[in-house]
Amino acid sequence: MNAKQSTLIGKLSLLVVAMFAFGYALVPLYDVFCDITGINGKTAAEPVSAEEAIVDTSREITIEFIARPNQQMPWIFKPEVRRMTVHPGEIHVMNYLAENPTIRSIVGQAVPSVSPGRAALFFHKIECFCFTQQYLAGGKDMLMPLQFYVDPALPAQYSTITLSYTLYDVTAQWQPDEHDNASEFGE
Amino acid sequence: MSTVTTADHHDEHHDHKPTGIKRWLFTTNHKDIGSMYLIFALVMFFIGGAMAMVIRLELFQPGLQFVDPQFFNQMTTVHGLIMVFGAVMPAFTGLANWMIPMMIGAPDMALPRMNNWSFWILPFAFLILLITLFMPGGGPDFGWTFYAPLSTTYSNDTTALFVFSVHIMGISSIMGAINVIVTIVNMRAPGMTWMKMPLFVWTWLITAFLLIMVMPVLAGVVTMVLTDKYFATSFFDAAGGGDPVLFQHIFWFFGHPEVYIMILPAFGIVSAIVPTFARKKLFGYASMVYATASIAILSFLVWAHHMFTTGMPVFATLFFMYTTMLIAVPTGVKVFNWVATMWRGAMTFEVPMMFALAFIVLFTIGGLSGVMLAITPADFQYHDTYFVVAHFHYVLVSGAVFSIVAAAYYWLPKWTGHMYDEKLGQLHFWCSLISVNLLFFPMHFVGLAGMPRRIPDYALQFADFNAFISVGGFLFGLSQLIFVWVIIKCARGGEKATAQVWEGAEGLEWEVPSPAPYHTFGTPPQIK
Ligand code: HEM
Ligand SMILES: [Cu+2]
After folding, report:
1. Domain locations in chain B as residue ranges
2. Distance from CA of B416 to the nearest CA of A (A)
3. Residue whose CA lies nearest to ligand 1 atom number 19
4. What is the distance, to the nearest Å, from the Cα of residue B379 to the centroid of all Cα atoms in its chain?
């Protein structure tokens, strides 16, 4: 095996390793891409501060609320109202009702998605139950608040925004930390 | 160059090739390894084919008759995996092993020991995959595309073995691809310049690069499935911050170049056969090379045409629709060149030519249904129906598989030293041609009428078509037994083949005697 041959083999092997890494790099790249473009309907995973936005009373936006427990999630989960009309810039609160009809404690994680996808960049959450995992003892219920406003910069073509939550049972992956609403869980 | 050839020359001197099983276990000879790959592919073709027969048996009538739905799903999944990774890809690798060194005037592959390894790990990969079918819970049942969450949340306990076997298949392909590239780059005989290389060599060189680029991505995505399922990561689990649609992006980033991995070498084969039997030079050699390269590059930019219905934004669907249609252009160049090669040629119609001609026509039908699928709004109707099944079987069975069969007939005399039985070969061809169309053409119609793919039962109105399709399927399966008979007969004896075999054949492989001696081109040939 001559030198020319070994360098070629070396380069090709490097390409193999690089492409394996690229496969993994697609995971963060995908998130970054979706964050920037908002094409996936993903909203920010962190709360925004309630800045004094100028309320634009000339426009009305209909917000539709959809909430759905995932197949394996036994909770009852629904918004207080199905839809509301808001002015861009106005801060609103929407409560979601969660009820655990089983006899065991369950931890839930809600994952939001906004449609049309590109409106996600303009839907701001000041406070949301989806930022943390939610603990609910068997037979109990609770109200989970969402505080939000619509960015006045929302392009004119959007008049309705649908916010959908899917609620997952994450009891198995639950890690108690100070942000959770029940650090006593796991007794 | 000369250092390489003398180094390999030295093998030739202690040429006491061991006999029996040891010869095959330890062989580093490209012809032995090529034969093993080809035989392995043929065996896999029949195992995967048997599964297809189970599928068609169940679908012969509506209702559930023979197998339960879960086993049916295992059959569709393992059938797909075996045909893609066990039959088509190893068959092409086998042809590459046999022919590339002879076509470029090299004594062997550049990395003979690695060559032995890349073959011998393959049977184990498929053994593992097949064994899962007999384990509690059964084999993989989530489709060859193993979409999350089917393969993560909802899959059975043998998924780890599935992942392991895919890893082994990937390693084997990557090693094979490195070997092909190093051989072509470093071992060409003096005077064999890039633009003198036969197209089969060119297409394989480009295929090898595709393999190196995408097989690691496949390895990555199965590993993510593995860790999502067993080690609590959430790459594809929305509850943990992942995204199941991400799976499809990564998978198809591999998957679409993969379909070209299965067709580019076929283009090379057809470009070798058509000029031989038309007794003319290949029309537009350089444009063939550039078309192949542009198909390979474009194949990285079209993956989301498999995902139009996932709710992508409109501009993304438009982008992928246009890039996909763009691929039809270089593909069209190829079809044009083959037809132009035949134009006013002195054609004869031996079996390899018949299969090559059938390839050109039927592959084009598959390409056309592909263009239909690429129209985003239309795909909303076609997606996940039998129309897609018809599309990819036209390009893969009457495309890739027909090209492999054509190659086998074309080079069998070189491999065995005997002519195959032309009458039997023609019988095989006509039976295959008729049955393949009975089998796959009606699938277009049931697909357009709304029959979904990957189901063990269907609505009553599809009954007649499905019975028809199943009969076509059984006939196609039976026809392939003729092929085995032809091969065995040809290996055993028959009319002696000359070195050139075919009157119009040109190229280095036709300058060595038939059967090709165990070692060829120990001293590099002179290329004019
Ligand atoms: C002009 C060329 C081609 C075009 C425009 C094309 C287009 C497409 C499109 C749009 C789909 C997705 C359909 C859907 O799921 O709704 C598809 C599926 C598929 N194509 Fe092609 N294609 C072409 C050539 C090929 C070739 C050459 C092969 C392989 C040799 C191939 C193999 C496949 C396979 C295996 C699938 C189905 C994958 C699955 O879902 O299991 N295609 N094609
Ligand atoms: Cu594709």
Report:
1. 30-225, 263-516
2. 31
3. B392
4. 25
What pTM was computed for the model? 0.88
Question: Are A2 and B111 within 8 A, CB to CB?
Answer: no
User: Taking the domain B263-516, which CATH number applies?
Assistant: 1.20.210.10
Segments making up each domain of chain A, as ranges: 39-184
Q: Is the CB of B145 under 6 A from ligand 1?
A: yes
What distance in angstroms lies between residue B326's CA and the mean position of ligand 1's atoms? 14
List CB contacts (< 8 A) between A173 and chain B. 232, 234, 239-240
ipTM of this model? 0.90
What is the C-alpha separation between B199 and B302, in angstroms, rounded? 25
CATH class, A39-184 region: mainly beta
Contact call for residues B92 and B396 (beta carbons, < 8 A): no
d(CA B41, CA A33): 41
B199 C-alpha to ligand 2 centroid (Å): 24
Length of chain A: 187
**Backbone φ, ψ for residue A171 (5° rounding):** -55, -40
Q: How far is the CA of B443 from the centre of ligand 1 (A)?
A: 15
What residues have CB less than 8 Å from B56, skipping those under 6 apart? B469, B470, B473, B474
Q: What is the pLDDT along chain B (528 residues), one digit of tens a residue?
A: 333 444 444 444 445 567 788 888 999 999 999 999 999 999 999 999 999 999 999 999 999 999 999 999 999 999 999 999 999 999 999 999 999 999 999 999 999 999 999 999 999 999 999 999 999 989 999 999 999 999 998 999 999 999 999 999 999 999 999 999 999 999 999 999 999 999 999 999 999 999 999 999 999 999 999 999 999 888 998 777 788 999 999 999 999 999 999 999 999 999 999 999 999 999 999 999 999 999 999 999 999 999 999 988 888 899 999 999 999 999 999 999 999 999 999 999 999 999 999 999 999 999 999 999 999 999 999 999 999 999 999 999 999 999 999 999 999 999 999 999 999 999 999 999 999 999 999 999 999 999 999 999 999 999 999 999 999 999 999 999 999 999 999 999 889 999 999 999 999 999 999 999 999 998 889 887
The reply to whether ligand 1 has any atom less than 6 angstroms from the CB of B273 is: no
Which residues in chain A have Cβ-Cβ distances shorter than 8 Å to B7? 1-2
**Helix, strand, or coil (residue B342):** helix
* Chain B residues with beta carbon closer than 8 angstroms to that of A166: 238
The question of whether B30 is a catalytic residue gets the answer no
Q: Could you tell me the fold of the domain covering B30-225?
A: Cytochrome C Oxidase; Chain A (1.20.210)
Q: Within B133-198, where are the H helices?
A: 159-186
Pair B65, B58: CB distance under 8 Å = yes
